Amino acid sequence: MRVLYLHYGPQSGVTAAITRSLAGAGAEVVDANPAEGFLYQLRPGCRIPNVRPAVVRAVAEAMRTHGRSWKPYYFHTTFAFDHLSARAGEAVRRARADAVLQAGVLFSPGLAPEAPYHLYLDHTRAIAERYPPLEGLPPPVPYAPEWRAREEAVYRGAAGIFTMSEAVRASLLADYRVSPARVHVVGAGPNVEPGPRDLGLAREPLVLFVGRNFVPKGGPELLEAFREVRRAHPSARLALVTGRAPAVLPEGVTDHGLLGKEALARLYATAAVFALPTLREAFGLSFLEAMAFELPVVASRIEAIPEIVADGETGLLVPPRDPAALAAALDALLADPPRARAMGAAGRARAAARFGWTRAAARMLDVLRPAPALATGRGA
């Protein structure tokens, strides 16, 4: 079976993981990124602007639509949606695949999709529109009827929709009136997993934070909470694995920057607690990574996180932007290593039973393979 995977970049490792897992399950996988070459920079992180005519138009539309917040919502204009949809349609025609699987709904698989398609989602725009305004973060993406019409058309036109979480499934049913029969919760998996020597190592009084974007992931709140934790646990340390931590950090805090998988695995293997008090979170692959390494998790009670972390069983959930509650949760686990270890073991068992890329890919193929209509759409 030949599967075309349409995506919009690495997506925190999801693209590589899902294409690898589909291939491992026996599918022939080709991928295409309609957004390639469409960024407002020549390359991610590069300061040289991309001056292609379509990009210049997209920047102008983003500025007109989103004002000073245009960069985080660059793709969220009807111009960008339609431009990328046209490019996606060209990719579908070139691939001549038996099945089309698309990540997200930043575009449609064609201005007028010519072949049946399935979607894989970690979020919906309706969820993002309901975010409360938070200081230090971009404002919630505004409701736009023209965008909603396009997004809803893609959902309602899909042969099936795979979601990472029940939270996204609920949004599809309530916000977009998608038929429940066409929505399948398949989960996701970790991108860093323990090797044979990574489990059973001595745990240090170390709290581990892993989040590329420091502020949205609740980094400032964690620093504030950690100051309180150090009063009760003077030997406790905090390791930050992030893209941009503050220049001045409290005593006991180390900024590791962004790490490769091997170095990150060493921290997962020797830490005592994983803490990610995120403020906005589509899913949270790092929670699955921590659980795979038998770490108890302290996290925010938002979106899909309660589906991943069982409060009181595999970790502790706290309200977002509540440093006092966060400090109390960290103190409780650092003060009771046997309880922390028991939660870590339960977390590893939960992650193995409910999540994983191999499991997600197998569930997708169970839906994709029996659909004879996919073959008839080939080359259309």
Instruction: Name the poorly predicted regions.
Output: 371-380
Query: What is the end-to-end distance?
Result: 17 Å
Q: Determine Rg (CA atoms, Å).
A: 21 Å
Shape type: globular
InterPro entries: Glycosyltransferase_grp1 (IPR050194)
Organism: Anaeromyxobacter dehalogenans (strain 2CP-C)
Protein name: Glycosyl transferase, group 1
GO molecular function, one term: hexosyltransferase activity
How does this structure look, described?
There is one protein chain. The protein has 380 residues and is of the alpha/beta class. It has two domains: 206 residues, Rossmann fold (3-Layer(aba) Sandwich); 149 residues, Rossmann fold, CATH 3.40.50. It is 41% helix and 13% strand. The protein has a six-stranded parallel beta sheet, sandwiched between helices. The chain has a six-stranded parallel beta sheet with strand order 9-8-7-10-11-12, sandwiched between helices. It is globular, with a radius of gyration of 21 Å. The C terminus is likely disordered.
List the topology elements.
Blueprint: E1 2-6, H1 14-24, E2 28-32, H2 53-66, H3 78-95, E3 99-103, E4 118-121, H4 125-129, H5 145-157, E5 160-163, H6 166-176, E6 183-185, E7 206-210, H7 219-232, E8 237-241, E9 253-255, H8 261-270, E10 273-276, H9 285-292, E11 297-300, H10 305-308, E12 315-318, H11 323-334, H12 337-354, H13 357-368, H14 372-376
Parallel strand pairs: 1-2, 1-3, 3-4, 4-5, 5-6, 7-8, 7-10, 8-9, 10-11, 11-12
Helix pairs in contact: 1-13, 7-11, 9-12
GO molecular function, one term: hexosyltransferase activity
InterPro entries: Glycosyltransferase_grp1
Protein name: Glycosyl transferase, group 1
